[in-house]
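Here is one such protein, fold included:

. . .
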Amino acid sequence: MDPVRNPYSPGAGRKPAALVGRDDALRAWSTALQRAERGRIDQPFVLYGLRGVGKTVLLSEFRRNASKRGWIVAQIEAGSGKPLRDLLGEALYAPLSDLARPSAGKRLMKAIRTALSFKASYDTTGTWSFGLDLSGADGGGADTGILDTDLRKLLRDLSDAAAEEEIGLAIFIDEAQDLDVDELTTLCTIAHAAAQDEWPLLFAFAGLPSLPRIMAEAKSYAERFQYSKIQQIDETVVSEALTIPAAQEDAQWDDDAVALVVADSGRYPYFLQQYGQETWNVAAGPVITKHDAELGILQGNNQLDNGFFRARWDRATPAEQQYLRAMAIDEDAGSASGEVAARLNKKPKSLGPIRAALINKGLVFAPEHGVVAFTVPGMAAFIARQIAV
């Protein structure tokens, strides 16, 4: 079939043509937005799960829904080499520019002046210009160099400005497990204050399965946040991720083809998109058959091995790859650190640096004390296919 019309789009954070199986989370977020507009502020949302399950897609959909309601929004990705202060400051520039106007109210003028001072706290050479005369405006003071003080001042003033505009402020943070302890603690503290004092401010975080533990360790009251474990698409609706996009392009899947792709994908959204894309390209159409699906899965696995999995495997040093091979014996269930060490004939303490490096690279995570697991499903099977050297 025509590859130009192919409706499937594997890729990190790319919204699928049919976002299925996430209705509960989207409904809860919509409710939180409406409640915030009425002065009832909900606790932060925390989306966690393995890579490839659609956390970033869902987080971005949260952002789009807030934007449609006219909210001030900023979405960032932690772990990009920049501190939280820089990331948030730059992410807020565009929405503030959109709001800046000569008729802006006092609270918005104050918030813009505070944003300018926040900018100066991390970039003394850069300048922002909103085209407004702020000489008589209140605000500023977000340039002490103390993250908690500066960010609290910025978000409080922005929240007041949002209230003046009868909207809200929403902050979205992906890969939140990569925030440093001080940054995460600051965000938890501000989110707690926002809920207590009813600022029209909502937070949504996304990260690996270790994120709930990391947040609770940063601040104990983070245990009260709204946690959603994002997993495979529910079996009752997973077929729609394939059939709805095809129907939009006047094509259809036969039942056996759908069943085969669903089974081989493990119901993981990324794999569904990859297999769907490859199957579409090999099919003559307009009906996608089981034979098409078999070929599509073969080509999809080849693409996954050479891209999705290979990119992660190649980031590991030879010593780290040995550690990963020892983990792969347990497949995707997770491995006791002591057992991995025994398989490598090493003392657990001597492997601590390797384990830490793999965690820092995002290849493994620690679901609990003394246990490590792969961050992507299917990684163990991929490793088993690699020839040891």
